[in-house]
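I'll show a typical protein example:
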Amino acid sequence: MVRKANKKDEKQIISLGRMLNPDYSQLFDLKKILKKDYNRFYVYEVDGKIVGFLHATVLYENTEIINLIVEPTYRKQKIASNLFDTLLTELPLDVKIITLEVNVNNKEAISFYQKFGFEIISKRKKYYQDADGYLMGRKIQ
């Protein structure tokens, strides 16, 4: 089930976020994120356990996906798709484009985003500690 994140979710989100970056809790202050109107933070919950989340920012006509992760044992179950669909349905009408960065070596994520109409816009050299990143985008009609 997809729902908006709340402050009670912090421990589970941080635990899952550490799969993205071991320093997740230092990089992202969930209490501050949840207070800002421009942030969208959704979790996917199975039997009380958060198994995935999506964090995006909405600024004027642009939305940027900051993080999207699903616990490995729950992948290939449309959880990421459900999180993404929820974001799309709740975006303000004036949003024209969604962007994100993805590691060039993360073929599974690149393929997922391409299924949702994202295209590679440019390559960002050394965007990640160990690799380049792609800037990907999708126009909203």
Summary: Helices lie at 10-17, 24-27, 30-35, 79-90, 107-115. DSSP finds five helices and seven strands in the chain. The chain has a mean pLDDT of 95.
